[in-house]
Amino acid sequence: MKRAELVFIPTPGMGHLASTLAFAKHLLDRDDRFSITVLVMNPAFAPTNHSLVQFIAASDTRVRFIHLPQVDPPPKELFFKSVEKFITEYVENYRSHVKEAIINHVLSASLPLAGLVVDLFCSSMIDVAHELGVPSYVFFTANAAFFGFMLYLPTRHDQVGIEFRETDPESVIPSYVNPVPPGALSSFALNKEGGYICNVNHGRKYKEADGIIINTFSELESHAASSFFNDGTPPVYTVGPMIDLKGKAPSGDNQAKHEIMKWLDDQPPSSVVFLCFGSRGSFGEPQLKETALGLERSGHRFLWSARLPSRDDGLAKPTDAENLEEILPPGFLERTRGIGMICGWAPQVEVLAHKAIGGFVSHCGWNSILESLWHGVPIATWPLYAEQQTNAFQMVRDLGLAVELKINYRLGSGVLVMAEEIENAVKCLMEADSEVRKRVKEMSEKSRQAVIEGGSSYASLGRLIEAMIANVTVPARKSNMW
Ligand code: UDP
């Protein structure tokens, strides 16, 4: 039996590390011919949190971690100009360390190297793979339609040579069913400070990889899936949904988690709307007030993860709101006692799995979307950052799988989402027999079928594994394969 080693290179930061490790575990659980080495970069600002790494290291000896030395981050000002450009440059600064670690610790070992699995911000590491003469696979943590957008960027750039503008007409992007308005594009597409061009370069680079691995399933993104055929794109492997590694890792605040779950146990089935906005979602006081009013007027029970922006201009994670009496409308907490609960970080996957949850107001991070579909909970869209506007657009317009609260909202834009908009969206979201709810339930079934034997993602992962094993000795041939 042929055995081989893979080197995983995640972007630093909890979200990327967690998704990468989830995939690493998924691969190892499926096929014991692989061993995996994960190269861990330090986060640029936050202190390194190794609890997840320690948890995996202790629970799975087939995953080895190599902690790379600290490198200098780019100037802080770049972070505020373009987060994507900042991360891209920071990762590029790790290139020589990555190459050295592979030469010293992986190539010297007995197993052959089957390739590098690089995160979407780590496309510069595809060059390291070229230099070492091994295959590279992009682990794309967003969805297939957005991967299509990344491929569209260099094609469009070669024609027009300039970033998108708010006044542009809708863009016909092959991986989306409907033309996409500029308001539904990621902020980086409009960014003149390096954010746009660095993503054009990522899109170009992805085409040099030997395969693209995406946490999605073909039943959900059939349009995007078929848009990749016959256009020189590397083989795309849809291997999801992969859900909830973090939920299994030791949680910091078990007491809060216990209280949330106990409160949900006391609520009627499908009666609670859950509001949660990802790892970086937070709102200032005026928006929290509007949200409170909207929730109260909707008349529905709610579980609301309400967090405030960090005090350092967004470099650190948001903080849990503490002085809620002062922030929220007078008497709100008293009036909603018993029908509403406000929390900080929520055990999202467990919450979505609870029978009391009837709807989810979400920032439309891709993991959140997959988690809510898995549990058959419909979403009302309230995108904030990254590719969430495009995700919201796709879920509402292309797929009919979500209720529109907002599509073109951007965090930091100064725009307030008014109580009335929230009230109306929550009422619509919580309708018992809506078409959206029915479609989401059907998609939930399909998501579960996709990953079991005979399912589309199960088969796609099998094809990826065979390609990886074949590529150990045989040079990669590029063709599309699902
Ligand atoms: N999450 C959570 N509790 C929270 C906020 C987020 O458990 O209060 C988890 C959520 O379940 C998901 C991840 O954090 O797995 C967020 O990933 P997503 O891609 O949705 O958004 P991002 O944080 O990358 O913006």
Automatic annotation (TrEMBL):
PANTHER family documented for this protein: GLYCOSYLTRANSFERASE
Class of the enzyme per the UniProt entry, highest EC level: transferase
Source taxon at top rank: Eukaryota
Keywords for this protein: Glycosyltransferase, Transferase
GO molecular function: UDP-glucosyltransferase activity
Species in which this protein is naturally found: Juglans regia
Keyword Transferase included in the entry's annotation: yes
Name this polypeptide is given: Glycosyltransferase
EC number: 2.4.1.-
PROSITE patterns: UDPGT
One Pfam family hit: UDPGT
Homology family: Belongs to the UDP-glycosyltransferase family.
